[in-house]
From TrEMBL:
Cofactor mode of binding and number, as noted: Binds 2 Zn(2+) ions per subunit.
The protein's Enzyme Commission number: 2.1.1.14
Protein name: 5-methyltetrahydropteroyltriglutamate--homocysteine S-methyltransferase
UniProt entry tagged with the keyword Manganese: no
């Protein structure tokens, strides 16, 4: 019985790639140094899977930024502004597309389906010239082969690539990206030919858009694409992999009818309805790559349950054609549980990170083949029973409080326009008020202080004094810049979700449980293992301290319940909505304590609200109902004079704008500039927004510093579709990943742009 892994984490067990990338970007190391780190990581990953007994090992899943950008490089689809003149796409061009450079902005970045991973959105048009311009897939296949490891090269499928793209600037929005399919396939044929010549026997095409609600034209494109590739693929085994949700019935029928495809990979964790489709009919003689081991979470697989599922599939597909697999790439989970030496032993026994999931996949494959490891299965069964019966998982008081929430919609009593009038009288802000999103640069010294405090190398008093000094520096800087509503910079926080999770019951934390979000950015999601409550105040001390340093309004900074949920590894033994309501109650307590402490502006970030939206339209209304309700619960009890902000970033918000309005926040700051001001189109189309809104005026994920004129131009575009009295001026997102040398001039220009337009508006009256 064979085993397969869809993909594997790239950063390394101790974030080796992150540090190598940042060293290269800072000019402290060479391209050769970066490539050496990458090669060592790839070698280690392939050997680990081979040693674990995995038969179908993926290659070309490693990336310096993301796999869609890799495909853009492969196709030579480099936007003209980057000055690329042909040949192999080099690292300078590659990273300019991802991060921008001193003269041109980066390409748009957005969420990879419903995950916290991001990808760089391709910009295409009728004039895009596609040429084979990155041989990465072939070189990595050869690299593994030189180590004696035969791999399956993985390519983003041609149809999904086009469906994930957008029309380039200046191209009509109605332009059909799928009209480029023939041109794209010409390059794919070259790649396939080179892989075949290099000795590849399998190729994996990741076509994740198969789980979306596709129209008949989009579905037909899959048929046309793989019919066109059929002769090129002759002599190869071909796997089409999908993940993250059920495959719709019509899609299932279309793809399983494709002639040149040898096997189909399905997510059977989040795609349980796909299991019913397989049971109702699966093509004879084709491989089924059954994704029964969860690639999105960190809970140990219920091996007995998975084995039962696999045995049922074996009767349908046949023993030799069933392959045990992960539900998706393991890049969405942490690397290796062996590195967690401080994790509670009971909770640790309930978990499996990527390395452990590889072992689970192979254990299931061996069990199906008649070589079941009884000790391994027995230990797994004991851990499953321990988790179900552990008293630390359940808090009846919390469950009762959450259940009682369902009788109300928890709206504030006064409508938002009336609240804004009352708040303005108290805050007395100018038109086009300026603010930032929350975090300021996280310096090496700051990280050292937090690290030493956690290691008990400095006292609490020393830690508090160091953080106080940093807050004071950030407050003074904002006053010097003449920003209107201040933040304390979040120097006490390494991560916005981890910080709150550490202070809430029902959460556990790792030391090395890092997961890539984009580029070199890694997050360490907390683990929600039980019912959630707030034992004590979490932010009041720091927010009150910061407010005492200035007469200007100081925002209290919180992470919202939906974002805490979506950016955590969430318990899978109760509905996500139940866990979210519990978190909402905890945040509600914190909001009310901040208000009681005199904080007049409170920001409750919901950066991940859109991220959690189900991929299938039929499931979206239910999610938005409980997610938006959870946000309203957090602030339903505050006074009209308390201004509630929220923040969202790096997703497509236009399709949920009415749900955003339904959140009933007083002010929303929202990413806008990185996505080429796509957000503004929803207002041009007639959507009325009556609350305060701050579409981001510059991209903080690029080191590029925008000019005053550029920012003013962006604000003018906003003023064309939004009322002057509701518009705020702010960056796209928090500033923690930037350096002060970038932040100071960018914010200086932002404030100057706001003042310039205030003068122009005043003189126009």
């Amino acid at each position: 019985m064979a085993s397969h892994i869809v993909g594997y984490p790239r950063m390394g067990p101790k974030r080796e790639l992150k540090f190598a990338l940042e060293s290269f970007w800072d000019g402290k190391s060479s391209a050769e140094d970066l490539q050496k780190v990458a090669a060592d990581l790839r070698s280690s990953i392939w050997k680990q899977m081979a040693d674990a007994g995995i038969k179908y090992i993926p290659s070309n899943t490693f990336s310096y930024y993301d796999q869609v950008l890799d495909t853009t490089a492969m196709l030579g689809a480099v936007p003209s502004r980057y000055g690329w003149t042909g040949g192999e796409v080099g690292l300078d061009t590659y990273f300019s597309m991802a991060r921008g450079n001193a003269s041109v902005p980066a390409m748009e970045m957005t969420k990879w389906f419903d995950t916290n991973y991001h990808f760089i959105v391709p910009e295409l048009g009728p004039d895009t010239k596609f040429t084979y311009s990155s041989h990465k897939a072939v070189s990595e296949f050869k690299e593994a082969k030189a180590l004696g490891i035969d791999t399956i090269p993985v390519l983003i499928g041609p149809v999904s690539y086009l469906l994930l793209s957008k029309p380039a600037k200046g191209v009509e929005k109605s332009f059909s990206l799928l009209s480029l399919l023939g041109n794209v396939l010409a390059v794919y044929k070259e790649v396939i030919a080179e892989l075949k010549a290099s000795g590849a026997s399998w190729i994996q095409f990741d076509e994740p858009t198969l789980v979306l609600d596709l129209d008949s034209h989009q579905l037909q494109s899959f048929t046309e694409a793989y019919a066109e590739l059929e002769s090129a693929l002759a002599g190869l085994n071909v796997l089409i992999e999908s993940y993250f949700a059920d495959v719709p019935a019509a899609t299932y029928k279309t793809i399983t009818a494709l002639n040149c495809i040898s096997g189909f990979g399905f997510d059977l964790v989040r795609g349980t309805k796909t299991l019913d489709l397989i049971k109702s009919g699966f093509p004879s003689g084709k491989y089924l790559f059954a994704g029964v081991v969860d690639g999105r979470n960190i809970w140990a697989n219920d091996l007995a349950s998975s084995l039962s599922t696999l045995k049922g599939l074996e009767d349908i597909v046949g023993k030799e054609l069933l392959v045990v697999s992960t539900s998706c790439s393991l890049m969405h989970t942490a690397v290796d549980l062996i590195n967690e030496t401080k994790l509670d032993s009971e909770i640790k026994s309930w978990l499996a990170f990527a390395a452990q999931k590889v072992v689970e996949v192979n254990a299931l494959a061996k069990a199906l083949a008649g070589a079941k490891d009884e000790d391994f299965f027995s230990a797994n069964a004991a851990a499953q029973a321990s988790r179900k019966s552990s008293p630390r998982v359940t808090n009846e008081e919390v469950q009762k409080a959450a259940a009682a929430l369902k009788g109300s919609d928890h709206r504030r009593a006064t409508n938002v326009s009336a609240r804004l009038d009352v708040q303005q009288k108290k805050l007395n802000l100018p038109i086009l008020p300026t603010t930032t999103i929350g975090s300021f640069p996280q310096t090496m010294d700051l990280r050292r202080v937090r690290r030493e405090y956690k290691a008990n190398k400095i006292s609490e008093e020393e830690y508090v004094n160091a953080i106080k000094e940093e807050i004071n520096k950030v407050v003074k800087l904002q006053e010097e810049l003449d920003i209107d509503v201040l933040v304390h910079g979040e120097p006490e926080r390494n991560d916005m979700v981890e910080y709150f999770g550490e202070q809430l019951s029902g959460f556990a934390f790792t030391v090395n449980g890092w997961v890539q979000s984009y580029g070199s950015r890694c997050v360490k999601p907390p683990i929600i293992y039980g019912d959630v409550s707030r034992p004590k105040a979490m932010t009041v001390f720091w927010s009150s301290m910061a407010q005492s340093m200035t007469s200007r309004p100081m925002k209290g900074m919180l992470t919202g319940p939906v974002t805490i949920l979506n950016w955590s590894f969430v318990r899978n033994d109760q509905p996500r909505s139940e866990t979210c309501y519990q978190i909402a109650l905890a945040i509600k307590n914190e909001v009310e304590d901040l208000e009681a402490a005199g904080i007049q502006v409170i920001q409750i970030d919901e950066a991940a609200l859109r991220e959690g939206l189900p991929l299938r339209k039929s499931e979206q209304a239910y999610y938005l109902d409980w997610a938006v309700h959870s946000f309203r619960i957090t602030n339903c009890g505050v006074k009209d004079t308390t201004q509630i902000h929220t923040h969202m970033c790096y997703s497509n918000f236009n399709d949920i704008i009415h749900s955003i309005i339904n959140m009933d926040a007083d002010v929303i700051t929202i990413e806008n500039s990185r996505s080429d001001e796509k957000l503004l189109s929803v207002f041009r189309e007639g959507v009325k927004y009556g609350a305060g809104i701050g579409p981001g005026v510059y991209d903080i994920h690029s080191p590029r510093i925008p000019s005053t004129e550029e920012i003013a131009d962006r604000i003018n575009k906003m003023l064309a579709v939004l009322e002057t009295n509701i518009l705020w001026v702010n960056p796209d997102c928090g500033l923690k990943t930037r350096k002060y040398a970038e932040v100071k001039p960018a914010l200086t220009n932002m404030v100057a742009a706001a003042k310039l337009l205030r003068k122009e508006l005043a003189s126009a009256k």
